[in-house]
Design goal:
The protein is 12% helix and 36% strand. By secondary structure, the protein is mostly beta strands. The protein folds into two domains: 86 residues, Immunoglobulin-like (Sandwich); 117 residues, no CATH class. A hairpin with a 2-residue loop joins strand 9 and strand 10.
Length: 267
């Protein structure tokens, strides 16, 4: 009887649904968005500056003409240069973000100053790459937790040099697996993703990034608004928590482990 009453009440609720299209308005807050992730790779490190989106499917507007400097420790300065006028992409000369040192990002733009501090934590070694036979000559990655500390792994896949690559197709892809050592109901009940399949001979370059505690909180905020959204436990939308004073976004420093694997035939 109770089950029948419950189903009857549920049908009444569904029958009374009414579509409501709320008016959406945007406000120009004059904020800037900072995207900066330095690593221990010897390369030009990037700081990207944009304006917030004014529409859900809008495009980012670059912030050009800013003065950007990164300070390592107390007195080592790395000035950044905008790649091209209007790009909003600022690069250091080749540098390595060393574990154990504090890095300070300083941005000056239109009379305002924005500051963030970050340091990296060690990265644990990569476990051997695991993958599964999906049938019909295709394979899929078996993504598993690794190590005891928060991390995420980028998998850059390419099969352009294999017979399976059609010249008119995009024979590659990027898969990111987040292992933040978190217990979030959104993560547990996030929407399923379609399998990403690839053939024998595919080259997989993996980069494993360490995640400091503050960076972990930021990534959880971003994932709650992106990959974890659409499940049965969505949260109220909000800007991701950042660490740049007076601005949106995040400045992070990570240690990185890299390896390369070629996919071979397996049962």
């Amino acid at each position: 009887m109770k089950r029948g009453l419950f189903l009857f009440a549920l049908l009444l609720l569904l029958a009374c649904e009414e579509r409501i299209d709320p008016l959406m308005t945007s406000i120009d807050t004059n904020l800037i968005v900072v995207e900066a992730h330095f690593t221990n790779e010897n390369k030009s490190q990037l700081v990207k500056l944009t304006r917030p989106y004014l529409e859900p499917n809008g495009s980012a507007i670059p912030v050009s003409g800013a003065t950007v400097v990164v300070v390592e420790g107390p007195d080592t300065f790395y000035p950044l240069v905008e790649a091209s006028t209007g790009s909003g992409e600022y690069y250091t000369s080749n540098m390595i973000a060393v574990f154990g040192r504090v890095y300070t990002l300083v941005i000056r733009y239109q009379g305002k100053e924005f500051i963030a501090h970050a340091r990296s934590v060690p990265v644990e070694p990569l476990s051997p790459l695991t993958y599964e036979n999906a049938g019909n000559g295709q394979y899929r990655l078996a993504l598993n937790e690794s190590g005891s500390e928060p991390n995420y792994v980028e998998h850059q896949l390419s099969w352009t040099s294999t017979p399976a690559c059609n010249p008119n197709d995009n024979c590659g892809g990027l898969i990111i697996y987040y292992d933040l050592k978190n217990i979030d109901v959104q993560d547990l009940f996030k929407p399923d993703k379609k399998d990403f399949l690839f053939p024998v001979g595919t080259r997989v370059i993996r980069k494993k990034y360490s995640v400091a505690p503050e960076y972990r909180d930021f990534l959880r905020s971003v994932l709650s608004e992106t990959e974890w959204r659409g499940g049965i436990f969505d949260i109220q939308r909000a800007n991701a928590s950042g660490n740049v004073s007076g601005a949106l976004g995040f400045f992070a420093v990570s240690s990185v482990q890299v390896d390369t694997t070629f996919i071979v035939d397996k049962p």
